[in-house]
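Its record is retained below.
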Amino acid sequence: ADIMLAGAVLVTDDTTYLRGRYDYGDMLIYHLDNMDQLPEQIAALLADEERAAGSSASVSAPFMLGGYVYIVTGSVNYAQGTASAARLEVRDAATGEVLRSVALARPMDTTCRPAYSDGIVVVPLSGGWLQAVSAVTLETLWVSPGTAGAQSLSSVTVADGLVYACTADELAAGTYEAVRGTVRCVDLLTGEERGAFANERAGYYWAGGVAVGGLYLVADDRGTVTAFEQGLAKVAATLDVGAGVRSALVRDGDDVLAVTRDGVLHRISMAGGRLTEVGKVKFADSSTSTPTVAG
C-alpha cells in the first residue's frame, strides 16, 4: 500500500481527487512498506535549518504541466510564530527531484490550490494575496495584495481572462467556523482588481467556485450559494442549501452540484437566471468532499 500526498489530503491508491484522476506520475508517493522512513520523507520538504528549528511543512495541491509536477511548499514554526516564504517548485514526475524553484512573495497557509491558465500559474498566498508566475520561466508577472489575517484555503478559478479567489477572513473561537470572508476578481494578465465582495456573514474555507455561462458561483461556510455576474459586478442570485459548504462546486450540464458538511449532495438548477434546488441525497454523516462527474 502507498500514501499519495495530494495537497493537505492523504488519499489511497485508487482514488478520484477533486476534478481529476491522478496516477503515480502525478503525486509525491510514500511507500508504507517502510513506515519508519515516512517522517523522514515528509520532512525532506523542509530545509535542514527548518527541521532543526521544529518547523512543519506546508504543501499545496500539485498539478501536472508538460510532464512535470508543479507544487507550492512552505514551512511554519508554530512555537516561534514564524513562517517562511512559499516556493513554487517544478519537480521531475518520475523521481520527485526539484528541477527549478522560485521564492514567492509571502508564506502560504497550511495548504493552497494553485490554478493554471494561458501559461500562467496563479498561487493563493497567506493573507489573501495572489501571485502570478510564468509557468515557463517562473518569472513573477504580478502580485496582488489581499486582506490582513485572511486564509487562502480555497480553490482559485480562472475563466474568461479573470481570476476568482475567496478567503476565510475570520474564524469563530472554538468552532472555527468562517464568519467573514472575501471574494475577489482580478485580471489574469495584469493582476488589476476587477471586483470584490465582502461577506460579513460567512467566509470561504476549503471552498471552490465554478464559472458557468458568464456567472461565477461559490458557496460559503453558512451554506449560501451565490451567483455573481462576470467580474463580481453584482449578485445575480443566491440559494441557501441548509448547511455549510467546505468543498468545490462542480458543473454537471446546465446544473451545479454542491456537497454540504452534513453529508448531502445537492443538485442546483440555474434555469431562468435563478438558483433552485432540484434534487438532493444524503450519502454520509458529514463530508468536505468535492463531487466528481463521470460519463
In short: The radius of gyration is 19 Å. The longest strand covers residues 68-77.
